[in-house]
Amino acid sequence: MPCSGQNPLVPQPDLAATTLALVNIHSPSGAERALAEHVVETMPWEPAWRDGETLWFDASVGGRPLVVLAGHLDTVPANDNVPGRIENGAVHGLGASDMKGGLAVMIELARAWEALAPASDLDLALLFFPLEEVGLELSPLPRFFDAGLIDRAALVLVMEPTDNEVQVGCVGSINARLTWHGRSSHTARPWLGVNALDLAVAQLSGVAGLPPHDVEVEGLPFREVLSITRVAGGVADNVVPDRAEATLNFRYAPHRSPDDAEARLRELAGDSVDVYSHSPAASVAVRNPLVTRLCERAAVEVTPKQAWTPVAQFAQRGLDAVNFGPGATRYAHARDEQVEIAALERSFAALRTFLSA
After folding, report:
1. Which of 137, 167, 223, 335 could form a disulfide with 212 if both were Cys (CB 3.0 to 4.6 A apart)?
2. Which of 74, 108, 337, 340 is catalytic?
3. Residue 356 gets which letter from DSSP?
4. Residue 10 lies in a domain
């Protein structure tokens, strides 16, 4: 869904240097303290609220719609991609795409805000938080939400890697377990036992290789997919296994409620499925007038988010949230992770134009 508009040329800060400095501060999930301190030192404003590594910076003057830029501080574990470097027009290194390039854009927009604010018709706040790349149960966002600071936000822009597209909504994600119980015996006499792996194969044959199910939501195509992610069973090569276990991951479109999504999973995989984690989908905020404004002024595309991101947590809070960031999705979590300097500059220019009156 293309959006019209111009992306004017604007002066650019040294986004590559800002990104490289962030990349070179090690911050895997659970070890974000040094990066949080760097953000506090680098930001032109004092934190208005802080809880550990969760940082809220608020430059609001009041009476204007509040736009919040949000980004996570953590990365996945290193994979031969530290320290970072600048090479061939890109910043390379762990977290460059997901999402330290986005954090750099946030910081530089805050630095530019003193010049932008007098002529803007919007208020601006920034949220930095840890523990996004791990289980939802560890997320600090519910504790932040309890403070009520973000409740008046007209739009939250989560700076996830989107290739500078506005990616709306996000698919939900369910992790579930199937368990089979048989009876062990010697493999020379398997008829004396009940092979739990045979039971698993029989049930999983109805799940394996299921084609994607395409769903249109607000005119945008989402894909529902069910994957077998792990299978385990057996204790020895000469023992008929009496227990087997498999895990499934179901990604579902934003038109489903959490209850409907779990019902659909049981329809596909059987009533015995045991859901052990569930990250709900996010509503598709394509009708928000500020999303329209961003598209029209910055000439960016609107596409669906075929993954789970924290926009779902903001949506559960009743807030409109979309994904928009400079990182390239193809490099997120990759050994050769990188973000193009030109992409950083496009993201900064788009948001600067968006925030200007």
Report:
1. 223
2. 74
3. -
4. no
163 and 98 share a domain?
A: yes
Please check the confidence at residue 4 and state whether its pLDDT lies above 50.
no
Q: Is 143 helix (H, G, I), strand (E, B) or coil?
A: helix
Residues 6+ apart with CB under 8 A from 138: 29, 131
Active-site residue, from 32, 132, 163, 337: 132
* Digit-coded pLDDT (tens) for 248-294: 999 999 999 999 999 999 999 999 999 999 999 999 999 999 999 99
Active site residue 123: no
CB 162 within 8 A of CB 325: yes
198 and 329 share one domain: no
Domain count within the chain: 2
- CA proximity to 286, closest of 302, 266, 273, 267: 302
Domain hosting 245: range is 172-279
Residues 205 and 148 in one domain: no
The answer to whether the CB of 196 falls within 8 A of the CB of 233 is: yes
**Residue 62 class from Cβ within 10 Å (0-12 exposed, 13-18 middle, 19+ buried)?**
exposed
DSSP summary character for residue 287: T
Determine the pLDDT at residue 11: 58
Residue 224 shares a structural domain with residue 290: no
Q: Is 132 a catalytic residue?
A: yes
- Look at residues 244, 279, 314 and tell me which one is the last residue of a structural domain: 279
Tell me, what amino acid is at 175?
N
- Across 298-323, average pLDDT: 93
Which SS3 state, helix, strand or coil, does residue 86 take?
strand
Q: Do residues 70 and 164 share a domain?
A: yes
* Alpha-carbon radius of gyration of the chain: 23
Other beta carbons less than 10 A from residue 277's beta carbon: 13
Residue 5 lies in a domain: no
Residue with tokens 């004396």: 192
Q: Pick the last residue of a domain from 231, 247, 279.
A: 279
